[in-house]
Specification:
The protein is α/β, with parallel strands linked by helices and about 325 residues long. It has two domains: about 5-150, no CATH class; about 155-320, 3-Layer(aba) Sandwich (Leucine Aminopeptidase, subunit E, domain 1). Helices cover about 40% and strands about 20% of the residues. It contains eleven helices and 13 strands. α1 runs antiparallel to α2, α9 crosses α10 (about 280-295) and α10 (about 280-295) crosses α11.
């Protein structure tokens, strides 16, 4: 069964939403769902096996996804219900992928347009809405929330996350690389270790990277990202050029992500480790650069995550945003 790319984006933003903690904004999720609605996103819907199909097979419990049955009779398809209360109210479970579906081993499903489901739910009196991926990192879609999402205006979003870029489910993760692009310590080493030796082979072909510039590779063994964008931050010297080069790292990475069809990207703290860039200054430069990029691309939607490996990094951003 072909994977719907818009359902994949929703699945990724849901993971990041949970990963980011209880105070995380749902805007990236809303962005992804809205984009899915505009592009006929398909989801998997559990159905009860019709009686006629049960009669056609010896053991209905062994029916698997992909099994085909032919009949000339009209079939009434009943969607699977998750009871909500004793009054007969219910939710309908939806799934972004077979992987999400199979976390409970249930296999009787059909493909359905999310937009058509949203339009139909208002007609179902006892249905309270949908639950997307109910077995794990779920999204409750009550009828009121559905109305909000349908009218939601997409907007690029910047989130601050306590964690590593390697753990993020995004189109592109950013590597704070050195000029050789052949790996190093910190996040650079972690990314090369997670991606595997094929990343090193591709990086050799790139012939290095200048400070402030960015180059892109595949993500290889990093399963939940499509690309790695390698950028080289400046070694701090206290000169004005440092700020210009650091800003260029973020801008060029965003430009490269957009050029390659990405709508989500995760950054580490560039140059704030052994390169010695003062944390508060680096946070301000990165924040202002991304906000300016948003202003320069009003017709593009990009979900940006700043991943703070240390509490001090997150505190620097929280202090900065509190003063704006």
């Amino acid at each position: 069964m072909r994977r719907d790319i818009y359902a994949l984006q929703v699945e990724r933003t849901l993971f990041n939403w949970y990963y980011s903690g209880e105070n995380a904004t749902p805007k990236p999720v809303f962005n992804a769902v809205q984009e899915g609605l505009k592009n006929d996103m398909q989801v998997l819907v559990l159905v009860e096996i019709p009686d006629i199909v049960s009669k056609m097979v010896k053991n209905p419990e062994q029916i698997k996804v992909g099994d085909i049955f032919t009949t000339e009779e009209e079939l009434a398809i009943k969607l699977y219900h998750l009871p909500a209360n004793e009054q007969g109210k219910y939710f309908i479970p939806l799934f972004t992928s077979e992987e999400e579906l199979n976390k409970k081993g249930i296999a009787s499903v059909i493909n359905q347009s999310l937009k058509e489901l949203f339009e139909a739910v208002a007609l179902w009196k006892d249905c309270l809405g949908f639950i997307l991926n109910p077995w794990d990192k779920k999204l409750m879609l009550s009828k009121d929330i559905i109305k909000s999402i349908v009218s939601y205006q997409e907007i690029s979003n910047l989130s601050f996350v306590r964690g590593s870029v390697v753990d993020m489910h995004v189109d592109a993760i950013v590597n704070a690389a050195n000029k050789s692009l052949l790996g190093g310590g910190g996040v650079d080493g972690a990314i090369h270790k997670a991606a595997g030796l094929k990343l090193l082979d591709e990086c050799r072909e790139l012939k290095g990277c200048n400070t402030g510039e960015a180059k892109i590779t595949k993500a290889y063994n990093i399963e939940y990202a499509d690309y790695i964008i390698h950028t080289v931050g400046p070694i701090y010297s206290g000169k004005k050029q440092d700020a210009d080069l650091l800003s260029a790292c973020y801008k060029n990475s965003l430009d490269l992500a957009l050029k390659n069809g990405c709508s989500s990207i995760a950054f580490p703290g560039i140059s704030t480790g052994i390169y010695g860039y003062p944390l508060e200054e680096a946070a301000e430069i990165s924040l202002l650069t991304v906000v300016q990029w948003f202003k320069e691309h009003p017709d593009k939607i990009m979900n940006v995550y700043f991943c703070c490996f240390k509490d001090s990094e997150l505190e620097a951003y929280n202090k900065l945003t509190a003063s704006i």
